[in-house]
Amino acid sequence: MKTIFLCLLGISSIFTGAFGQDSTRLAAWNNFKGRYAGDWTIRWDRATGTPSSILGSRITSFTGTPEQIATAFLESEKEILGIKDVPNEVVLERENSSPRGGNRMIFRQRLNNVPVLGSGYLVAVDGGGGIYYVSGDYFPDARVNTIPRLTVDESQKIINNDFSTETAASVSRPTLWIKPSIGQDKQDYRLVYKADISTSSPVGAWEYLVDAQTGVII
After folding, report:
1. DSSP strand E in the chain: where?
2. Which residues in the chain come in under a pLDDT of 50?
3. Helix, strand or coil, per DSSP, at residue 136
4. Which of 5, 39, 70, 90 maximizes the CB count within 10 A of its CB?
5. Bridge partners, residue 57, by sequence
6. Where are the domains of the chain?
7. 6 bridge partner residues
């Protein structure tokens, strides 16, 4: 039996045990172990209350295209993963081939169609339709007003005024994102504009975040 490692990496520290899990998620974990053959172990992310890793056997319960297989897995395991509405909260962002064969689907978490920074799942499906690797982050408590006070042009002006135009080789058009801030005792979310900047002096790539409500650079 081929062994796989489903690694759901959180941005906060990872702890073993069931800290922060509600009864629904723990029940979902018991159901998970009953659905799939083999031995399974889990590690929980202390801050989000979702799995940071699941270790067990290759999953072959789903059929269809790689995208359909990956989506069916997310739908089947949405309770343990903390997802309420897979079609609306987790959107396929891109797909590429795996060096070991098969396909890798990259899903991004969204709230009201606004993507969440640092979120998403990579679901790897082999040529035989078996899921052999999943990695990512999900923030089930992401809640924020997704209507910005600032316009895109206003945020662009703030970025241009703050960043030296002499060293900026290019500045992308700002886009709306949700930025999680996860601590041991609380979870915070902010609506931000994000712009990607490349520089010639020094040579490098930079990411600028501006609070979409206050205009403060983060």
Report:
1. 3-7, 14-15, 41-45, 51-57, 90-97, 103-111, 114-115, 120-125, 131-137, 168-171, 175-182, 187-200, 203-211
2. 1-19
3. strand
4. 70
5. 3
6. 3-137, 152-211
7. 54, 134
Q: Do β-strands 90-97 and 51-57 pair in parallel, antiparallel, or remain unpaired?
A: unpaired
| Tokens representing residue 14 in the block | 């990872």
At residue 113, the pLDDT reads 95
Looking at residue 116, its pLDDT comes to 95
> Both tokens of residue 141?
């408590």
Taking only the tens place, the pLDDT of each residue in 40-97 is 778 787 777 777 777 777 889 999 999 999 999 999 999 888 899 999 999 999 999 8
Mark residue 49 as left, alpha or beta (left: phi above 0; alpha: psi -120 to 50; beta: remaining).
left
Task: Give the pairing of strands 14-15 and 203-211.
Answer: unpaired
Helix (H, G, I), strand (E, B), or coil: what is residue 90?
A: strand
Q: Return d(Cα 208, Cα 218) in angstroms, integer.
A: 8
Tell me whether residue 12 is exposed, middle or buried, using C-beta atoms within 10 angstroms of its C-beta: 0 to 12, 13 to 18, 19 or more: middle
